[in-house]
Amino acid sequence: MLPYIWVNFSSSRLAVSRLYVLLLIIINLSYNFLIFFCPVHYIFFPDAASGNANATSGLKIAYVEVDTLLSQYNFCKDLNADMISKEENSRMVLNQKANELRKSQQEFQKKYESNAFISPERAQQEYARLGKLEQDLQALQNKLATEMASENAKNSQILRDSINAFLKEYNKTKGYNLIISNTSFDNLLYADSTLNITKEIVDGLNARYTPVAKK
Predict the structure, then answer these.
(1) Which string of DSSP letters, residue by residue, matches 199-215?
(2) Per-residue CA distances from 11 to 17, 123, 213 (Å)
(3) CA end-to-end span of the chain, whole Å?
(4) Residue 120 belongs to what H/E stretch?
């Protein structure tokens, strides 16, 4: 006689919810892209009265507010929109499959409790089939999470290359010795606003960006 089988209906939903959290984290990271510039965590500008002003007087320095750049650079916004769309599609697929599995599990439970299976062997076969479906769902979750992480890494590299290529051309005429990235004042304690070239960079990046026509 087939022993009583208890089906854990919450396992699929729990696994799916964990994936959603991971996907949302990935989407959030892909939007911020805080790895584009080599971070300068702290720069100290000596006071001119100290006699050490010459240590930096020969340098031409500027800074870019990365948060502003990422929120206004159209290429970054398009990448982010594409990632959100893919995350939503993944969520839809996982929801559909999880609901189908949960429905099948509930039907199995009812049949088993009402002794509707023609034989213990038939009940065991159905139980094994449902177990395989649950394994397949877990594998799909892992696959989607891996794909999202890979997509995020690829987008980060593409965006970083785009910005670095522009800065290289931009600096041929500007002649800066150092362009610092600043994220919510994490890297700069103070800087004169005249050193802020964020708008120039954003305008230049957007001027040369041509969105890819969607199919």
Answers:
(1) HHHHHHHHHH--PPPP-
(2) 10, 21, 41
(3) 57
(4) helix 120-174
What's the token pair of residue 24? 């949302």
Helix (H, G, I), strand (E, B) or coil at 14: helix
**What's the CA gap between 67 and 48, in Å, rounded?**
31
Residue with tokens 């708008």: 199
Residue 119 carries which DSSP code? S
Token pair 């959100």: residue: 84
Which residue reads 């049949």 in tokens? 111
Tallying the residues shown for the chain, one arrives at 215
Residue of 160, 195, 159, 191 lying closest to 174 (CA atoms): 195
122-153 pLDDT, tens digit each: 999 999 999 999 999 999 999 999 999 999 99
Which residue type occupies 123? A
pTM, entire model: 0.66
